[in-house]
From TrEMBL:
It comes from uncultured bacterium 2303. This is uroporphyrinogen-III C-methyltransferase. Belongs to the precorrin methyltransferase family. The keyword Calcium does not apply. One of its GO terms (molecular function) is uroporphyrin-III C-methyltransferase activity. Residues 51-260 form the Tetrapyrrole methylase domain. GO terms for biological process: methylation; siroheme biosynthetic process.
Amino acid sequence: MLAGAKGRAPFSHASCVRTRRESSRITTLAPHRVAPPRAALGGPSPRPGIVYLVGAGPGDPDLLTLKAARLIGDADVVVYDHLVGRGVMALVRGDTELVYAGKERANHALPQPDINALLVDLARRGRRVVRLKGGDPFVFGRGGEEAAALAANGIDFEIVPGVTAACGVAAAARIPLTHRDHAHALTFVTGHLRDGTMNLDWPALARPQQTLVVYMGLAGLPELCRQLVAHGRPATTPAAVIQHGTLPTQRVVRATLATLPEQVRAAGLVPPTLIVVGDVVALAGKLDVVAPRAASLLAAD
């Protein structure tokens, strides 16, 4: 049994595995049974399994690291998240087992303890597993929890960093996260805490001369803007919301803390998005030296 899961029913991933159709790269749910280890059939012991916690980057497959691309192509099993795009998944071999473990707001395909147990189970069966996460696995990706579960169960694993969304998406929107004249500090926070609240350190986040990047914060955007202004950030502080950053469908709304929630509502932005707050956002307009990508910029400063 998985360490730390005492009292839970034994984990089975028979109902959560997705197999690839031969005629397309679309995945569908199908029952699945993993063959028993060869040792159980009287043959030699299977090779030791290993789990790679791999960052898939912010969306554009060209932003994958070379190592990530190689591991994805070599995997026996890929356990992938909601934010991993089609372009990245296209690198998976046709005979690779796929397991969807994505999480959307209030909709988790698998509870985190079951994902941990799945990774342990697959590795114990001698599989070469890629746990594929959007962005970087150790930046709001629960990679630390999964690494701890693997370590506690004696499973060999490796961390493969990826371009985190804050860096990749901001660059795609031409927003420099730091600048000698505008931002001497950079803070990443998640807008969706474990208990579902936005109980953040507002005085610290409202300090001047810093850039604030908020992951998963769209639902709480009005509260975010209100709290930052209430704790000292000027209402005129530039801010932006980027949807589908780095992808051809990228859309950007630039406004101020006072006007951003209404601008975003009017534009109809939906997750996944990234929020950037700080004077550096105003520099994006100056960096549009050529026409922005079609339909990408919805509201300017």
